[in-house]
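pls design
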């Protein structure tokens, strides 16, 4: 519910002339702004190493298409962003889950466990950092572990870092683009949707030092002509948005996270860890089946004629049968609504477990 910067709308209003196709690689001024943005993060990309995409979703689809044949495999930590599963299905790619657990704060497993999942069909590791849906920010050791495995087993890394600006508690984010000896293996996925609250603009990007891959991705970009021009023009304004915009957004999301985490921590039987980034968390509830509980909340329970909807976490797992007693919570709504929601959840759990005894 945080508004996009006013500069975005003003830039679009200023546009005059013919609304033609943009260059398939992306609007030149926007590419320049991406180069400038990354430089501020100590990530050095040249203009020709970036392609503007129709959201991060298209960037991920392109990454799969240029690296995988039908039936090839990608390793992804689970629980994972649910759209990864759909994108893999659309591109005839098989997901091999790397299992992580809420009880262990969704830390990556040991190297030998990850390596045991690699076959002659494995082509890449896809990792969201900060992670949707868990909110985990992977440690330096975890990031370098993935880099080591990719290098030793000749794999690509799809680094989905769209939540880069949402880091809390002075935690350091290590980008895969910071690691020199895997530059030709990294495809960096990004989006303006999250850091500038512009999801509907559908502007993302894919960047890599691998020239051969970028040539193939450009062919895919040419096949769909271009990302929307007006939104690209509007997005060029973000380099002029004061840093305070992101700082204030971070502060607000941190307050929301703290509110939700504190409330959950006081609920009997709930297992959760404080997320370090993004604006999601996966929580284990004291119920046998979270989806049944959610349906009950919607049909049978309310406080002052209000109830809540949670996302069953089972849909974020690639392994059937996992996450049945877990939910994903997003804290991207205002604090007052979150307070009400946490109260409804707490009272709902008490009432539901009385009924089920």
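designed seq:
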């Amino acid at each position: 519910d945080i508004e996009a910067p006013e500069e975005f709308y003003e830039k679009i209003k200023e546009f005059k002339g013919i609304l033609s196709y943009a260059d398939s690689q992306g609007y030149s001024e926007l590419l320049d702004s991406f180069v400038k943005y990354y430089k501020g993060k100590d990530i050095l990309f040249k203009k020709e190493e970036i392609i503007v995409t129709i959201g991060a979703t298209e960037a991920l689809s392109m990454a799969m298409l240029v690296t995988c044949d039908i039936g090839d495999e990608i390793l992804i930590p689970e629980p994972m962003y649910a759209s990864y599963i759909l994108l893999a299905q659309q591109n005839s790619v098989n997901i091999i889950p790397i299992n992580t657990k809420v009880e262990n704060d969704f830390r990556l497993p040991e190297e030998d466990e990850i390596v045991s999942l690699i076959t002659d069909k494995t082509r890449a590791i896809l990792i969201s950092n900060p992670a949707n849906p868990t909110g985990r920010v992977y440690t330096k050791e975890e990031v370098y572990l993935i880099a080591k495995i990719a290098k030793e087993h000749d794999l690509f890394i799809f680094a989905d870092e769209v939540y880069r600006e949402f880091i809390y508690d002075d935690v350091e984010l290590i980008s895969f683009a910071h690691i020199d000896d895997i530059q030709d293996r990294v495809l960096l996925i990004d989006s303006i949707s999250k850091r500038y609250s512009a999801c509907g603009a559908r502007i993302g990007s894919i960047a890599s030092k691998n020239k051969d891959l970028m040539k193939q991705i450009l062919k895919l970009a040419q096949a769909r002509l271009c990302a929307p021009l007006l939104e690209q023009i509007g997005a060029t304004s973000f380099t002029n948005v004061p840093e305070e915009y992101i700082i204030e957004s971070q502060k607000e999301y941190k307050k929301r996270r703290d509110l939700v985490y504190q409330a959950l921590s006081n609920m009997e039987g709930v297992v959760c860890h404080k997320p370090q980034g993004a604006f999601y968390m996966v929580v284990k509830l004291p119920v046998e089946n979270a989806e049944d509980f959610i349906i009950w909340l919607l049909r049978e329970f309310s406080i002052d004629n209000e109830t809540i909807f949670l996302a069953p976490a089972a849909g974020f797992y690639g392994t059937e049968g996992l996450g049945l007693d877990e939910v994903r919570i997003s804290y991207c709504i205002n604090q007052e609504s979150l307070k009400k929601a946490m109260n409804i959840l707490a009272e709902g759990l008490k009432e539901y477990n009385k009924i089920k005894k």
